[in-house]
Structures are given as structure tokens and as C-alpha cells.
Amino acid sequence: MDYNKKEEVYSKVVRAGKRTYFFDVKATKGNELYLTLTESKKTFVDGKEFYQKHKLFLYKEDFEKFSDGLGDVLTKIGELNDTGNYKFEEYTPIESTPEEVSFDDL
């Protein structure tokens, strides 16, 4: 393994309609892990297919805070959905799944 290059360690692709999300775990030159989250959305400009991309870099010192924040928001969405005031027909709150990723594992 060449530690002088940024290396992709793991990748997960989630397709969601016109959007595709990429979760990529990479290693820095110093062999520290970080996560890139990319949203790719298919659009058309003058009849030609075009992909609009947005990328977020998440570094190890922020993993726990990010995970906590995301968990809190998803829990709140579930609570709001249960009130019946919002339309989230396809949303099911996440309890705990075998595929759940802990940033401690990285």
C-alpha cells in the first residue's frame, strides 16, 4: 500500500430518483481516514444531460458530532412525522440496523 497517495478505502452508492449519493471513505497521505459525501443530481441544459455535484468532506475530529447531529435530526423527523402535520409517506425512522456505521469503526 502506498501511503503517499490518497486512497479510497470503502465506497457506498445510494441511488434516489434523480439524485445519487456517494459515501466514500478515504485515507490521507498520513493514513488517517476521512469521509466524503457527494450528491450528484442529473439535470438537462439545452437538451444535454448534465450532472450537478455537491461535495462535503468530513474529517475524523468531526465524526462523532456529525453522527450525533444526524441522529438527532432523523429522530426529530420521525417525531414530526408522527404528529400527522407533515407528509413523509415513504419515511420510516431509523431505529438500529445491522448495516449501521459507527464512526468509531473507522
Q: How would you sum up this structure in a few lines?
A:
With 106 residues, the protein is an alpha+beta fold.
Word description of this protein:
The chain has 106 residues and is of the alpha+beta class. The chain has a single domain (7-105), classed as Nuclear Transport Factor 2, Chain: A. It has one helix spanning 63-82; strands at 7-16, 19-27, 33-45, 48-59. Strands 1-2-3-4 form a four-stranded antiparallel sheet, with no helix packed on it. The longest helix is centred in the C-terminal third of the chain and has 20 residues, at 63-82. It is flat. The two termini are 18 Å apart.
| Percent of residues in β-strands | 35-45%
Order of the strands making up the biggest sheet = 1-2-3-4
Number of strands: 4
Number of domains: 1
Net shape: flat
**Uncertain spans:** none
